[in-house]
Specification:
GO terms for molecular function: glucosamine 6-phosphate N-acetyltransferase activity. Belongs to the acetyltransferase family. GNA1 subfamily. The protein contains six helices and five strands, in the order αβααββαβαβα. It has helices spanning 22-27, 46-50, 61-72, 104-107, 127-141, 156-161, and strands at residues 32-36, 78-85, 90-101, 109-118, 146-148. The chain has a five-stranded mixed sheet. Strand 4 (109-118), helix 5 (127-141) and strand 5 (146-148) form a beta-alpha-beta unit. The structure holds acetyl coenzyme *A (ACO).
Length: 175
Amino acid sequence: MSTTYSEPASLDLLFPQELISPEVSAQLPSDLQIRPLASTDYKRGHLDVLSVLSVVNDLGEVAWVNQFHAMRAAPHTYYSIVILDKASDKIVAVGTAFIERKFLRGLGSVGHIEDVAVDKSQQGKKLGMRIIQALTYISENNGCYKSILNCNDANIPFYQKCGYVQKENEMAKYA
Ligand code: ACO
């Protein structure tokens, strides 16, 4: 039996839905929805999808919700988005744009694309590309003069297909 999806009455979102590219929304299959992260998304498998990318260390729902509210308390800074499978009410793809305000470039801003992941069973269906397009749209609509990200060598062709070019090097020092 198929589940009929009904839009939740009011989702508590990290930022307004209007900041999601209408073009990207329109390109998704009708059974999927792209939207800002919601305060109830812990239950929809947000961390399960992120675990495709790296170690998660799940500290539980209360801690997750506290982090959500801490991010929302810094307006115009954290833009986490999800793609939801409406039938199962499960998240299948995630990503974040972090807006850095600078003193350079006439007090310009840079958009950092972070923590992009697609559920293993959904990879290869252009969901990763839709996440990048939506995050780039958010970055550009925040007036950022560039959007940047770090990735491993294996993902370079993916980001090139999304219109990104290779620039400089990444340095890291782990605590
Ligand atoms: N090598 C070559 N081409 C690739 C690769 C790859 N590793 N991955 C995707 N592509 C190509 C696809 O074939 C497709 O090409 P096409 O337009 O010619 O058909 C295009 O890139 C778009 O691919 P999508 O279907 O959108 O890719 P997908 O939905 O699988 O998402 C992603 C790609 C995000 C890398 C996914 O595979 C994933 O979650 N991987 C594990 C986690 C990860 O590595 N995340 C990125 C970390 S970097 C960061 O967060 C900034």
